[in-house]
TrEMBL record, chains A, B:
One of its GO terms (biological process) is carbon fixation. It comes from Neotamlana nanhaiensis. This is Ribulose 1,5-bisphosphate carboxylase. Residues 5-122 form the Ribulose bisphosphate carboxylase large subunit ferrodoxin-like N-terminal domain. Gene3D superfamilies: Ribulose bisphosphate carboxylase, large subunit, C-terminal domain, RuBisCO large subunit, N-terminal domain. One of its GO terms (molecular function) is ribulose-bisphosphate carboxylase activity. Residues 134-410 form the Ribulose bisphosphate carboxylase large subunit C-terminal domain. Belongs to the RuBisCO large chain family. Its cofactor is Mg(2+). It comes from the Bacteria.
Length: 413, 413
């Protein structure tokens, strides 16, 4: 029988082998005493199995509250556990409950993080996965050998439909590939969803007729499920190509339902992510998280950015970008959405460390607050990426291009 | 315009007022430079507002990674923030993205936890909330002035439908009020969902005909949305009264969709909760969490238990029980599901600290592994609660009742 594998980073004041056995037990038979009916054969077939155990460093203090034992130190380790797929079939929420469920509650651990997971090949027959991914995203908006350049409508909230449409118009004239609603923007009195889609899509269609280029706009459909379906329909009717979902706020089941429709690229916003990831020894790491989102069918997923305005390290961002671009079942790479405080200056380090242009590079203020206007803002980003790919430094690129030079002057800290 | 209020527990090495302003800014206008179109009037109308700020203790070290400033200490504080409901309307996922969203990513904080929230009364016109809650749950299974006594099918996985049905039969004969699938149990080859419901409901209906008592069984419908709908239908067709959803694995949007059907009591399992709550300065506290689940319409919600086998403190469990039993819009108390290592011995402290019998008291091994059999296990739990309510001690209760005395002998540590 095929098995699902999961790798955890753990910390415990107990014997590590004992703690790993508790982990496996909780996530299969799961009670504090043996009960009638729990035969050895049954355990053999359904019990989670500890596959590997690697001791790491020892900490003096517990990373999160748990059982402390006077005089004991806290051993860290990597543990690999597996389950027969018989345990959950092809059921994404039950898979998540198995991989994450009550594990974080176990007092024997003073730290537990899901690092990565592996599902067997048979999953591809049951999960259609991302329909578009990075290839389909780039194709849809006519971008070839460079990153898609994107921006976010700011201010996040408060603009009328016509103000937003005017902004979209100037962004399109500026040469943008991708625009998105802010995740705080749903359907508001000042900007009802349907009107916003109509107002914006008219401009996008006009531009497509004139230039052949269809700019991708990610409308935020995050809502209850019937509303999401209705909003999805509106985008399709108006000829849009993309919908955005705040995947953590909406949840996996509803996200998958919308992804399964397959008519629109799904832009997955991971807001709320910090809660699940910021502590080094609690929660889930991105390589595991993005696989769950891929099983749901998300095409684009936020990864933060190099030298971002948030707390995340560049190393972590690089790992995230790479994990999106690693095939899961073959030819199904998803689009890493690089954003947060980006203005073009980070293109050099981003390219140096990832060696790819298969990404969506988002700049908010970096475009709209460019001293020479939004068009120069978009041009500057393209110049930065061209320079980065050609192996130029930031300074060399700035010396060649006026628009990028103005970005450097305004945004470089 | 009505406003939503949220209370955060924060930690920062910066000036707290500045950090609070960053929080409010990120969750409304949200970019790192001012952009054209962001007028003062617009800010006034849509900006989040810092309502209150209370300084607490000072820590020497940051609780989670963030900006550290050499020589600076880390001030903790409570911050109350509010938003106009114009910002998100009556959209639960966008509300969550606003309350939690990117906040956890902000490097100015070395700790941030959502403690509580308040929504205006108008929400009750848009969210039908829990249809049954604690009152409807007790009424459905004919329990009056004592807690509902429940148990979980164990082993969690691996039993055939007929084995499970036999176990259910003996539990019903033992006098149980409530039984649930384990959260790791979905639809498996050895126990297909539809067959399981049919096999179990036949026994429950039989018993109802004979005795008039309809035992509540929470079938785990957690799955993708179409499957959940189908499974819900099966339970309704077979005359069942309850469905269980792993709310974190399934997500808010799909959970609400199922709750909105209103034909079954929804048992909300919070597995995965530890990830969101275990760190004292990261994530969300139960009083806020249960309100979001109530807006989705969940009727019963896990709260762990006194002297549980997990890491959580008794104080936290007591707060959780009380928050479930506090009306949100009036007469809408939900059912706290007390479980984890419970065997009856904890009834005394649970009652002493909560003064309520409005709860579902779950024991797994405490019933099935009772030395005199499951019937004695259920009886012992009822004896324990009767003793607790009458003001007896554990010892006094054990002296009066043979079954409870046997529990004490086997389970008391």
């Amino acid at each position: 029988m095929e098995r699902v594998f999961a790798e955890y980073y753990i910390e415990t004041p107990y014997d590590v082998e004992h703690a790993a056995a508790v982990l496996a037990g909780e996530q299969s038979s799961g009670t504090f005493v043996s009960v009638p009916g729990e035969t050895e054969e049954l355990k053999q077939r359904f019990a989670a199995r500890v596959e590997d155990l690697q001791l790491l460093d020892i900490a003096d203090n517990p990373s999160i509250p748990g059982n402390s034992i006077p005089g004991k130190k806290y051993q860290r380790a990597k543990v690999k556990v597996s389950w027969s797929i018989e345990n959950f079939g092809y059921n994404l929420p039950v898979l998540v409950s198995t991989l994450q469920g009550n594990l974080y509650e176990i007092s024997q651990f003073t730290g537990l993080k899901l690092m990565d997971l592996e599902v067997p090949d048979s999953f591809k027959n049951h999960f259609s996965g991302p329909k578009f991914g990075i290839k389909g995203s780039k194709q849809s908006c006519g971008v070839g050998d460079r990153p898609m350049i994107g921006t976010i409508i700011k201010p996040s909230i408060g603009m009328s439909v016509s103000e937003t449409a005017n902004l979209v118009k100037s962004l399109i004239e500026a040469g943008i590939d991708f625009i998105k609603d802010d995740e705080l923007m749903g359907s508001a009195a000042n900007s009802p969803f349907e009107e916003r889609v109509k107002g914006i899509m008219e401009i996008i269609r006009d531009n497509e007729q004139k230039t052949g280029k269809k700019v991708m706009y990610a409308f935020n459909i995050s809502d209850e499920i019937d509303q999401m379906q209705k909003h999805y329909d509106t985008i399709v009717t108006e000829g849009g190509s993309c919908a955005m979902i705040s995947v953590n706020s909406v949840g996996l089941a509803a996200t998958k339902k919308l992804c399964d429709r397959g008519e629109l690229v799904i832009h997955g916003h991971r807001n709320g992510w910090g809660m699940m990831n910021r502590h080094p020894l609690l929660g889930i790491e991105f390589p595991a998280y993005q696989k769950l989102q891929r099983l749901a069918g998300v095409d684009q997923l936020h990864v933060n950015g190099i030298q971002n305005k948030f707390w995340e390290s560049d190393d972590s961002v690089v790992t995230s970008i790479k994990s999106c671009l690693k095939p899961m079942f073959g030819n199904d790479e998803i689009c890493p959405v690089v954003s947060s405080g980006q203005w073009g200056g980070q293109a050099f380090e981003t390219y140096r460390r990832t060696q790819t242009t298969d990404l969506l590079y988002m700049a908010g203020g970096g475009i709209l607050a460019h001293p020479l206007g939004p068009k120069a803002g978009v041009t500057a980003l393209q110049q930065a990426w061209k320079g980065a790919v050609e192996g130029l430094t930031l300074e060399e690129t700035a010396a060649k291009h006026e628009e990028f030079a103005a970005s450097v002057k305004k945004f470089k800290k």
